[in-house]
Amino acid sequence: MSNDSATNFTEYLKNLSVKARQNLLLSGLAILFFSLVFGGVYLWDNQEPMLLPDTDKKPTTRNITTPGAQVDPREVWMSQSSQQLQEMDDLIRAMKQQITDLESKQDQEPQPGNFFAPLPPPVPEPATQTDAFQTEIPPPQPYLPPPMPEPAVVTAPPPLPGIAVFQMTAASPQNAPNTPPEPPKTYIPSGTFMRSVLLGGMDAPTGGQAQNNPMPALLRVQDNAFLPNRYRAKLRECFVLGSGHGDISSERAHIRLESLSCTLKDGKVVDVPAKGYIVSEDGKAGLRGRLISKQGQIIANALMTGIIAGIGQGLQQSATSFSTSALGTVGTLSGTGNQFRAGMGAGIGRSLDRVSQYYIRLAEQLFPVIEVDAGRVVEVVLTKGIEFEIGDGQEMISLGESRNKLRRMAGRRE
Predict the structure, then answer these.
(1) At a CB cut-off of 8 Å and minimum separation 6, what does 208 contact?
(2) For residues 240 and 200, is the Cβ–Cβ distance under 8 A?
(3) How far apart are CA 160 and CA 157, in angstroms?
(4) How far apart are alpha carbons 309 and 357 in whole angstroms?
(5) CA dihedral sign, ordered 319, 325, 329, 332
(6) What is the mean pLDDT of residues 18-24?
(7) What pLDDT band is residue 414 in, cutting at 50, 70 and 90?
(8) What is the DSSP letter of 347?
(9) Contact (Cβ atoms closer than 8 angstroms) between residue 235 and residue 225
(10) Where are the domains of the chain?
(11) Is the CB of residue 262 less than 8 Å from the CB of residue 235?
């Protein structure tokens, strides 16, 4: 009978579908799992608790003290005080012993000025002749003092410093060395100004390292320089070299002098450093020019490429379909057309984004310039005096032309 039931159950399992078999297997495993869990819980609850063995011994308390807790602070203070007193007593005894030794040494040393040894005791008087025998007294021996020590050699003191007096006499012309005379020098004081012309134009930079790396400028002096008190310096046709940079706020190019070079009549060349500035036609420091900037065009190009890059990114996102679930948002591309459109949009967006960044970096490197034309007549002003050598017979400074004309007219009338 049991074999028939087993056979029937096997046939029943074979006739079931795959899904029914899986459900049956899962049900059996679930029943087995729950039976094990509940059986374990039942056995755990019925287990007798383990009791600790009862002990009749009562706990005893023991006081444990640290090694230094039983020491009385007063005893510590007394021991330290006694030790300090003993050390002070030893020190006083040692000092007394040193004082005693010093006093004994002073007593043993001979007194200064006692050059002779002490005299011997006096000779006793001769005894009277009471018997037949007469005592003979030896004759006294002369006493000689010990030899005197050799006198110490006294060195003479060094001579005191004094004042040496010398008499200077003029050297004869025959013995004088043949030194060439110094060439005459001319000094141009500060505040001197001269009319000059700008030989070359310049584009003065306004940003970055403009002041550390200025643009050069060359000027030619058109007239004699004006000195204080109506004096003139013959600096006509001299060259002035300067360096300038731009100021974007005032739209001016400021030029500072570097050097002044001239050629004298005898062919001697004078090249000296100079300090000063340039005054334009309107009487203000610096030359007014045109402000030129190329940053606007570059910024416009960066804006255009950025807009096209944004359109490409939008095209990529429009070809992607997004689905939201409990696990998050998932983007999918369905169809060849959407994939092609997304790839084209991604390529356009990334490439134009890099082009936009390039334009932005280029705009940061560019800076405006002040454009100044050549041929402008300006005034050169010296802020520090200059000195240079001239040859014999050269005259660099003279009175003003107006004063010379008045003197000539007065001479003709006489």
Answers:
(1) 367
(2) no
(3) 9
(4) 11
(5) negative
(6) 79
(7) low
(8) H
(9) yes
(10) 185-292+371-402, 295-323+332-366
(11) yes
Q: What is the DSSP letter of 200?
A: S
Collapsing DSSP states into helix, strand and coil, what is residue 127?
A: coil
Q: Which two tokens stand for residue 31?
A: 């029943």
Helices (H), 47-72: none
Q: Closest by alpha carbon to 331, among 256, 390, 339?
A: 339
A 10 A CB-CB count for 275 gives: 15
Tracing tokens 């444990």 back to the chain, one arrives at 64
Residue 115 CB contacts under 8 Å (≥ 6 apart), including other chains: 145, 148
Tell me which fold the domain 185-292+371-402 belongs to. Lipocalin (2.40.128)
Paired with 291 in beta bridges are 370
Query: Which of 246, 260, 248, 256 has the alpha carbon at shortest distance from 202?
Result: 246
pLDDT digits (tens, 9 = 90+) for 91-131: 999 999 999 888 888 877 655 544 444 555 555 555 444 44
Which residues contact residue 311 at a Cβ distance below 8 angstroms, ignoring those fewer than 6 apart? 345, 348, 349
Measured in Å, how far apart are the chain's first and last C-alpha atoms? Answer: 174
CA distance 269 to 367: 40
CA distance 286 to 247: 9
Residue 303 makes CB contacts below 8 A (sequence gap 6+) with 356
Decide if 387 contacts 186 (C-beta within 8 A): yes
